[in-house]
Fold this protein.
Amino acid sequence: MPERVISLAKRGRGRLAYAGAFTPPLLDPEVEEPGLIAGPNGKAAKKRYNVYRNNVTVSLVKALADTFPATRRIVGEDFFRAMARIHVRQTPPTSPLLFEYGRGFADFIENFEHARTLPYLADVARIERAWLDAYHAADTGPLKPDALAAIPPEKLSQATFTAHPAARVVRSRFPAVTIFALNRQDGPVGRLETADPEDGLVTRPELEVIVRRLPPGGAAFLEGLMAGKPLGEAVVAALEDDERFVPAANIAGMLEAGAFTAVAVSEG
Amino acid sequence: MIGMPVVDRVEAARFPAFPVHGSAGASLKPEHLVGIHADPAPVGFFEVHAENYMGAGGPPHAALAAIRERWPVSLHGVCMSIGGAQPLDKGHLQRFKSLVDRYEPALVSEHLAWSTHETTYFNDLLPLPYTQATLARVAEHIEEMQEAIGRPILLENPSTYVVFKESTMGETEFLSALVQRTGCGLLLDVNNVFVSATNHGYSALEYLADFPLEHVGEIHLAGHAEQEDDEGALLLIDSHDGPVADAVWKLYEIVIGRRGPVPTLVEWDSDIPDWPVLKAEAAAAQEILDRYAASRERGAANA
């Protein structure tokens, strides 16, 4: 058969309707169970279909609970499940890889009216999402601490950096890093001693994910470098963001954290 | 123009080719890693859900590589959506192939079920009607997966809670036809047989009598939970959250008596117990496998 005829034949293969009919009620409790199914010998299938409804919703809520344990601890189990269920129904996953799920959860929390009294909650969720990205990121060695020593001082401002695949910056108007850390450790949640805004850096230079608080201007500095800005421009951007920014300490900090894998200096 | 010389690139196997024949294994759970590595004789093999290892790197791959260096690994796909109406996800096929290449698994399996429709992933093993049209579609999908990963797969019989009014074939007939058309093997989940037989009011023994046992390359055992259907009758849920039920052990022994020893996995995915509890379940399966292997040897010696 010529190729064109084969492709037409393939396209013409019968449409199978069962999936389109089976799925709409799965995430919408208002939609009745599909008519194309039954129990044995024509028995009713409402409770039977509900097994699938329950599996889908409960397993996806659990996926969010596993990804956002600090968020869950802050609001409590019942509140979290109720909130997650709404998000699951509005925004189910589009990838079969569940560790990719929940990218819209922080924005959802930010606009969730019942969570308005916890304005930092969305930022804690952002750190947790970044934590899981770092956990699964590609394995690669970070830049050696002495990597910049080989660059002539007059060229240093033109140096550009390659971000480590695990590195993420999360900015917050709240002490989100401290709240995240308090709620991710096993012991009782201690007292929150600060109300200052905190920016966080998430890295995984080896196998352990590390979340650090960044010094003033540090987030703008790293975001600049990660976007490909040369070192000099990133320093300027950081100083514009916060005049307390200290270049030397931030450069040492980013090397120690393993936020970058390579440095290059353009010729000329 | 002179063509480039064609060189067969034969890469050395990265891991030992451990056999799994006649051995019992357990689901690999991160909470058991320390216990497993400290155990001088844990189980015969470990099975992982492929999707949990489809990230680029990090602790999951480090853990799986450390396991694979010492034991055989079975790669069990949960969301290829082989039973789905729409084409397979090409990206997912590629990720699956990468895992097969990377870990050289002893066994590779997937489900007669689906989980993705249009762009939504439902994270459950959803059922399909058994008709000539779905048979053709599922056979295409199995062939596509086998071609992508370069080896045959084992296809698992599902636990189901509903039937489709449009079905024209029984499940064993459907599975037998898939084996004939695609050359795939079968993963016989004995708990799923028991769950589905109870839920649909047929005999598990009759189902097994019709099942093409000669094509079974792996067996699954797991625990189930009990609920009620709309009429208040018993409805079993494939929950993987407890020990294997006595009735399932009996069916398993019948299958092994008829089929001979087959690699057998005890699954436990929720309410995960301490390692010794799961290990004991696998040891119980191993005991049955060894008993029938020994009786077969005696039978052969006396022949």
Q: What stands out?
A: The mean pLDDT of chain B is 94. The domain at 24-297 of chain B is CATH 3.20.20.150 (TIM Barrel). Residues 171 and 230 of chain B are 23 Å apart (CA to CA). Chain B is about 40% helix and 20% strand.
